[in-house]
């Protein structure tokens, strides 16, 4: 597993981009997309140091935002998503959302799991 991005829940993506740009230098921004499979509006930002931040807005994160929680997930890129899911489940993780195509990542498969330190997203490298 290789770190890919951190997912941040927000009420308004455009406003959050402005807020982040006051703190960090954004060197790249993906187009904003609405992913029906994730039921969320998404954008990926790349900071000057190479860190990626995915902003997530919509019904998917409303519960988090009502509790003033903006941390949503950490994403790791993996070579074989199904093998990695099996390994993590054997280590007491549980699947929140099974693999499905992610529009923001050119329809590569993503899955969400709960592990001891919170929710993680797995992004298939292929």
Q: What's this model, at a glance?
A:
The protein is an alpha+beta fold and 126 residues long. The chain is built from 3 helices and 9 strands.
Characterization of this structure:
The model has no long low-confidence stretch (mean pLDDT 97). This protein has a single domain, classed as 2,3-Dihydroxybiphenyl 1,2-Dioxygenase, domain 1. It is an alpha+beta fold. The protein has helices spanning 13-23, 62-66, 81-90; strands at residues 2-9, 26-29, 33-35, 40-47, 52-57, 71-78, 94-102, 108-115, 118-124. The chain contains 3 helices and 9 strands, in the order E-H-E-E-E-E-H-E-H-E-E-E. The radius of gyration is 14 Å and the shape is globular. Strand 3 and strand 4 form a beta hairpin.
Rounded to an integer in angstroms, the radius of gyration calculated over CA atoms is: 14 Å
**Number of individual domains:** 1
Number of strands: 9
Secondary-structure arrangement, i.e. CATH architecture: Roll
CATH superfamily label: 2,3-Dihydroxybiphenyl 1,2-Dioxygenase, domain 1
- Give the low-pLDDT segments: none
Number of helices: 3
Principal-axes geometry comes out as globular
Beta percentage is over 45%
CATH C-level label: Alpha Beta
Task: Describe the main β-sheet briefly.
Answer: 9 strands, mixed
Output the helix-strand order: EHEEEEHEHEEE
N/C terminus separation: 13 Å
The assigned structural class equals: alpha+beta
Mean pLDDT: 97
Helical content class:
10-25%
In CATH terms, what is the fold-level topology? 2,3-Dihydroxybiphenyl 1,2-Dioxygenase, domain 1
